[in-house]
Specification:
By secondary structure, this protein is an all-alpha fold. The protein has one domain. It is 79% helix and 0% strand. It contains 18 helices and no strands. Helix 3 runs antiparallel to helix 5. The two termini are 21 Å apart.
Length: 488
């Protein structure tokens, strides 16, 4: 296994390796968010019902995907800590076990999600018999059919992140997003009235393609088809590379054979993260249902505002993942003080950046929101989204603090602490106050926006207080866990 200085965070300067590790993660997170942003922009050309369908569709999908996402975190933690402890003979085994376990998990969730789609939609307030409901069912079922292509890339990305390679996932995701940008309008609009061809001045080619195929697209469902095809172009090569040895990891088929002890360790570390992530996704579903009390226009605005927030979140989430790897490697090497320094550096960087982003968001709120919708009802949707930025954007810096410190807890294997704080934040500080402010105090969508701001502030205070107690700094791999695997 070859060593790259950017992949080892246990010695030397921290700034360069942390930035070298985190920058590609941030870019990859940006590319992940671009999937949803591109879908929203193109689908937004179909009108308010289509945008509302995406807003209703993603919360249930996020819930099920998050259940498996926590297990991929376990693989990242185990790879990082075993590498930091210089037990490279264990790295391939825990990587292979994570891949096999999450693959089985994703296949089961895909089947459950496909058949439960209408039920999920009714639970979050979508009305059966409407265009929004029909569009949502079509979109979600395609996503669930191809859900392994999403899970597979998450596993690939997490395992390489634990090893310290964040550039390869970035390159593959870049290819995937580029393909998605082209396929989205084709599968949504077909070749009859496709804005992509007008955008690049290829109307004659569009007319020829329509004359030859008669293809008029699949509407909202087409966005899901394009997403699955595009994601497969990142997942299949990525998984294949894990078996070649070119990326440091060198899996074999024997590493995929599930073993009870390793599975227990994956579940022990991963289940709190699964609960945390799925709870966050459920809270998004709950927030969608709460905002739906106001009406479909509010839901459309919430969908757009959430995507803007996700775009901003990627900085915090990406740097938090870099902190996760750095903390994991240093605790594996028994260098707890160095792990703490990583957290302080990351918090300083994020807060500085978010001060600038907040100023931009508040100053240019209306044009930012307007990018994501056009057509009937757009003005009202934009007005609600502008209020979101005015209220929530000033708390982005504290949200960054929360994600960095949570990344520290995850890297240490203290996934239960991260889970408790996340669940408390999204439900106790966001969902319940949102309902109270919107329903009892009749504040409308402003009540939901103030609840999100409250969550950012409260969550940052909670994790900072726990971090200061210093009860998180023990590694989760001991000498028995780190023992080399016996030969078959």
């Amino acid at each position: 296994m070859s060593e790259d200085p950017d992949r080892d965070l246990t010695s030397g300067s921290l700034w360069r390796p942390l930035l070298a590790l985190s920058a590609p993660i941030v870019v990859t997170q940006l590319l992940q968010v671009l999937y949803n942003l591109v879908d929203t922009i193109w689908v937004g050309q179909l009108g308010k019902d289509a945008v509302s369908a995406l807003s209703f569709s993603w919360p249930p999908v996020f819930v099920l995907i998050s259940l498996g996402g926590g297990l991929t975190l376990a693989g990242s933690v185990l790879v990082a800590q075993n590498k930091g402890a210089d037990k490279l003979d264990r790295v391939n085994e825990v990587a292979g076990q994570t891949l096999a376990f999450v693959t089985l998990f994703s296949l089961v969730l895909g089947v459950v999600g496909y058949f439960m789609t209408p039920t999920f939609l009714r639970l979050i307030g979508a009305e059966p018999g409407t265009n929004v409901f029909a569009y949502s069912v079509e979109y979600m079922r395609v996503i669930f059919v191809g859900v392994w292509f999403m899970f597979g890339f998450f596993v690939f990305q997490s395992l390489l992140r634990g090893w310290g390679d964040t550039k390869t996932p970035m390159y593959l995701m870049g290819l995937s997003v580029a393909v998605n940008i082209v396929l989205d309008p084709i599968f949504i609009f077909g070749f009859q009235e496709n804005p992509l061809f007008a955008l690049v001045n290829l109307e004659s080619l569009q007319a020829s393609l329509y004359a030859a195929t008669g293809f008029t697209g699949y509407g909202v469902q087409g966005a899901a088809i394009a997403t699955i095809i595009s994601r497969s172009l990142a997942t299949i090569p990525g998984i294949a590379l894990l078996f070649t040895g070119h990326l440091g990891l060198s899996l074999s088929l024997s590493d995929l054979r599930l073993e009870l002890e390793t599975m227990k360790k994956i579940v022990e570390i991963g289940y709190p993260a699964s609960i945390e992530q799925s709870s966050g996704a459920l809270s998004y579903s709950a927030m969608t249902a709460i905002v739906a009390i106001v009406g479909p226009t509010a839901v459309a605005s919430f969908g757009i505002s959430s995507r803007i927030n996700s775009l901003v979140f990627l900085l915090a989430v990406g740097l938090g993942m870099g902190v996760e790897t750095a903390v994991g490697q240093n605790l594996g090497a028994e260098r707890a003080e160095r792990a703490r320094r990583v957290v302080f550096m990351a918090v300083g960087m994020l807060v500085s950046v978010y001060l600038v982003l907040t100023l931009v968001a508040v100053t240019y709120a209306e044009p930012i929101v307007s990018v994501f919708i056009d057509g009937e009802g757009a003005a009202e949707v934009v007005a609600i989204g502008v209020r979101f930025l005015y209220i929530v954007a000033p708390t982005w810096g504290l949200m960054g603090v929360f994600h960095v410190i949570k990344g520290c807890f995850n890297g240490a294997g203290s996934t239960r602490a991260a889970m408790i704080f996340s669940v408390t934040a999204v439900w106790g500080l966001q969902v319940i106050p949102a309902y109270v402010l919107l329903r009892w105090f009749e504040m409308g969508t402003d009540g939901a926006w103030w609840a999100i701001a409250l969550m950012h502030v409260g969550a940052a205070l909670l994790v900072t207080a726990w971090f200061a107690r210093d009860t998180w700094s023990d590694r989760v791999v001991d000498e028995d866990d780190l023992a080399a695997t016996p030969a078959d």
